[in-house]
Amino acid sequence: MRRVSTRALVVTGVLVALLLAGAVSYYASTSPDGLNRVARDQGFSQTQARHHADGSPFAGYGTKGVGDRRLSKGVAGVVGSLVVLALAGGVTVLVRRWGPQRESRPERESVEHGGR
Q: Which residues, in sequence order, are CB contacts of 110 under 8 Å at separation 6+?
């Protein structure tokens, strides 16, 4: 069996995530999320205040300045995914760089596994 490299796996995963974010985000539910739904059901949704980011370019799961709804949501989904992937990649690099140093002991492994 052919072994898949880590780089190929990561690149494929990122491409699939971006494809899904761009194509599937338009079909996301328009129903309120859990907190908004509970606030509405319990009768205190009218106390909700505007969020500080309401005027941001990606507020409301859309992209300000993009007229087509499908494209607007797709761009927002792709940008959001890129931000999350960049943060996750950055944390991974930091953990690998500053985490405990791994020692490579190939001769010890072969002895422990019967020299195979």
A: 116
Predicted local distance difference test score (pLDDT) of residue 32: 66
What pLDDT digit, counting tens, does each position of 10-69 carry?
Answer: 999 999 999 999 999 888 777 767 888 888 889 888 888 888 888 889 888 889 999 998
Integer Cα distance of 93 and 103 in angstroms: 18
At 64 the three-state DSSP class reads coil
> How crowded is the C-beta side of 41, counted as CA atoms within 13 Å?
7
- The whole-number pLDDT of residue 12 equals 96
The strand ranges marked E within the chain are none
Q: What is residue 15's three-state secondary structure?
A: helix
3-state secondary structure of 19: helix
- CA angle, residues 15, 21, 26, in degrees to nearest 5: 150
**2 dihedral zone (left: phi>0; alpha: psi -120 to 50; beta):** beta
* Residue keyed to tokens 């971006």: 18
